[in-house]
Amino acid sequence: MILSYYIGLKYLLSVFWSFLAIFFLILLVDGSDQVVSMSSQGHSFIVGLKNAVIRSPLHAVETLPLIIMLGSLTCFLSLTRSNELIITRSSGRSAIRILFFPLVITVMIGILGTTIGNPLVSISIKSSEKLLEELGIKQRSFLSVSTDGIWLREADKYKQIVVQSNRTNASGSELFDLTLFEFDGEDNLKKRIYAKKGSIRNNFWKLKNVSMWEYAPEKKIISDFQYKEFSELSISTNLSQDQILNSFSDPRSINFWEIPDFIKKLEISGFSATRHKLFYQNELSRPLFLVAMMLIGATFAMRYTKFNQAGLLILTSVLVGFILFSLERIAITLGEAQQIPILLAAYGPPTIGILVSMGLLLHLEDG
Q1: Contact criterion met (CB below 8 Å) for 79 and 10
Q2: Domains in the chain with CATH codes
């Protein structure tokens, strides 16, 4: 048991040093990029550094698989070079027993990355977007989804239009049971328009079965609002269908614990929630993917006991890890396109990585 604790502690320290190395590399690269970007737009380099620090949790969580693999490689290569691994194997311990505590630690890191790291990423993305909006670099979001349906907002110097719709089709090209509120530059209500159906075509809202209440106090008969009905009505807009579809929150900016509720709101509104469902399942599968990356590093590092080619083994390990990571990206792309089931896209790559690594490990070390 003491030996298992020792290996577990050594692995944890290796992961920690790998994390520090990758983290500072991220700060260096992203910080330089942010400083150049901010300076080109007339802002102080301090603002660029601030944004880089704000965004650092996002990059740290995204590079967790690399951190785990490098930590595994470093740990087991170190144990091999010092002959500790050889002595441990000679005492009758199998490779699976040696890897038990590192596996447990990796699973715990994966769980923490999902349950705590994801909310931190969500906060960092929102804080970065808020900073960019305050600096005028990024346009403020004009769409939100709530239990009341979909809300859109567009504004210019002279007026502001707020659109509320109960639901839409999956492509976002048509809205149903929508209400438009038009305000003047001083936020006074000018018009309220209700339509059974509406769509955006060529910079115009094309509304059907329309009821309109228009504020006209100078024509007051019974009230300050005039009521009109139209079979069709066109209203100019700066929005487009692509803007509506692309304006949904990046799944990474939504707290992990709030994603199920957001998915329900999307589905009630009529939008496809495939992207967010896949992201949620991918977050749940994070511990499995980290285990696969850890096993890849351990398998090749432990082979160093028989072949004195550390450099080649490290290169091969990194290459196999990159292939697995690429496979995961491809699976996610296919899942978002609904070409393969969501569960297969989320759990397929890590399962393949674990099975292949375990097979190699058992064959080469215990076979």
Answers
A1: yes
A2: 2-136+272-365 (no CATH), 143-246 (2.60.450)
What SS3 class is residue 129?
A: helix
Give 181-234 pLDDT, tens digit per residue. 888 877 788 888 898 888 888 778 888 888 888 876 665 555 566 788 888 888
Output phi, psi for 211, to 5 deg. -120, 130
Torsion angle of alpha carbons 272, 273, 278, 283, nearest 10°?
Answer: 160
Check residue 83 and give left, alpha or beta (phi > 0: left; psi -120 to 50: alpha).
left
Number of residues written out for the chain: 367
For residue 198, how many other CB atoms are within 10 A of its CB? 25
- Does residue 275 sit in helix, strand or coil? helix
Tell me the pLDDT tens digit for each residue of 92-116: 777 778 888 999 999 999 999 999 9
Whole-Å CA distances, 34 to 46, 247, 250, 316: 10, 23, 20, 33
Dihedral pair phi/psi, residue 330, rounded to 5°: -65, -45
CA atoms of 3 and 312, how far apart (whole Å)? 29
* 37/45 Cα distance (integer angstroms): 9
Q: Is 141 helix (H, G, I), strand (E, B) or coil?
A: coil
Rounded-to-integer distance, Cα 128 and Cα 120, Å: 12
Contacts for 257 with CB less than 8 Å, ≥ 6 apart? 119
Contacts of 360 (CB under 8 A, 6+ apart): 299
The residue behind tokens 């923490």 is 112
Amino acid at the residue 206: K
